[in-house]
Amino acid sequence: RPHPCPECGKTFGRLTHLRTHLRTHTGAKPFGCGACGKRFGHLSTLTTHRRLHTGERPYGCSACGKSFTNPSDLGKHRRSHTGERPYPCPACGKRFSQQSNLAMHRRSHTQERPYPCALCGKSFKYLADLTVHGRSHTGERPFPCPACGKSFSNKSSLARHGRIHARAAGRDK
Prior knowledge:
Blueprint: E1 3-4, E2 11-12, H1 15-26, E3 31-32, E4 39-40, H2 43-54, E5 59-60, E6 67-68, H3 71-82, E7 87-88, E8 95-96, H4 99-106, E9 115-116, E10 123-124, H5 127-138, E11 143-144, E12 151-152, H6 155-172
Antiparallel strand pairs: 1-2, 3-4, 5-6, 7-8, 9-10, 11-12
């Protein structure tokens, strides 16, 4: 006999499945990590989390040997070998291997800028762009040139600068 959720009406064939589902409404996290204390709503999530502490990576790629802590990460990785891109952009048709990459790409079709700078209010489409922008306030330049020591706030500026050394080295030959 089906067991309906009193909160949302979804039905479950087993009472244990309903009890697990109810945690999505209550926010209960009965499973705690003995190593760091972080809590989880599902035992399977705790099991995967524990692998961060143990270093265990039981899901190996048969194509290249790289291993992962959970099967979904292995599945995403396999697409790098197969070239499968199952997530199309509804606006332009470009296809992606991961939903998260599609979600980021979709912002290129909108004016959505969900990452505001807490210091000046300027907003960005991508978290990485906000991170780089933040360095304009702090003066941080974490990318030093190995040739001359000059530092840059982002990798692309370092790469552009590196071409100066490459051209100079070409002239010296």
